[in-house]
Amino acid sequence: MSMDETHGGSMVSAILSSIVLLLLLGRTADAQRSLEFFDLLPEDPKLYDKMRPPKKDGQATIVYFHVTVMGLDSIDENSMTYAADIFFAQTWKDNRLRLPENMTSEYRLLEVDWLKNMWRPDSFFKNAKSVTFQTMTIPNHYLWLYKDKTILYMVKLTLKLSCAMNFLIYPHDTQECKLQMESLSHTTDEMIFQWDPDVPLVVDENIELPQLQLVKNYTADCTQVYSTGNFTCLEVVFVLKRRLGYYLFHTYVPTCLIVIMSWVSFWIKPEAAPARVTLGVTSLLTLSTQHAKSQASLPPVSYLKAVDAFMSVCTVFVFMALMEYCLVNIVLGDSDTPPKPASPPQPPSSSGTDAAKLDKIFDIATKENTILLSGRSQKSTTGPPPGPTPAQRARMRALNIDRVSRVFFPFLFAVLNVTYWIMFAEYI
To answer: Whole-model pTM above 0.85?
Structure first.
């Protein structure tokens, strides 16, 4: 081999090595260059319309939802609202986008601000009063792009939601509070919401509420037809059952004790009017305060609640105990006229003293002879004792009314309690 051929081969090898090195440096530069939004758009950006859903073959775009509930609190019966902390995820596929050339992993994290220039679902929370976006320590949301051009957008939110409550059987009630997500402008011809087929809903098992218990939760469809079209909607339903322990120890037991306290007047003598009237009025006022306290946290509804029926009947019992003393006082007061004074015996005259003494001696002798002959006691011969006075008879009638009340009131109140708790036993 000549020198020229050897020199020529060396030149070719150097040129090839340079080309390979340039290619490697180019790829390294591409790998180090940050991804731009225009790298995701089609080659002709005019073909991408961010206001038009990415419909494939004319079919409506399907958006999958996933909700993770981390907390429920601030349930307010008066305003009929509750608060929820959630992770809200939306997943959809946009085939109009391009994948980055250097994408090697299953997904790539994108800048969330790019959503302003991309099509995204126009979902909103239908029954939300307010929505708080978490920003500590960084904005709590992210955007993923998968290899199959699926986009995942997840955000952490704190929601204040309305909950239509029915207090007809309060405090034995069970409420259903909802979290509804609906499309704002796209009808079902363009977009459809569906729950994630794998994990649609996750609720933290450690959720504890002071007066309510989360007994059940499930997902449902709430799609409705409006005058402008049929708009897709999904909802999460929380079934909340009220705990009875608080109301049992702060409403029912104190109310029953107040009613029982009003019966003490049946054992106080009828003549003690200040004691009996004070006890009845105090019991009635205390029960009215207890009733007002039980309604403090509830809205002023126009229908009768279960606790209202119980408290009203207890109020009637205390009022009737006070009216019972009115009846006793009336019966006792009908014969309060003072008795006529007996006329004093006239002193015997001096002329008839001897004759009167002889008459008494003969009467005593006659009675003793009669006792000896008949063998009967002296009391039986004196005749029946005089009957009770009108005042004594009136007092006996008043005492009889009290005796009947001591049995009648507790019996009727026991029947009321048994009936009430049997009616609501299935809700306990």
So the answer is: no
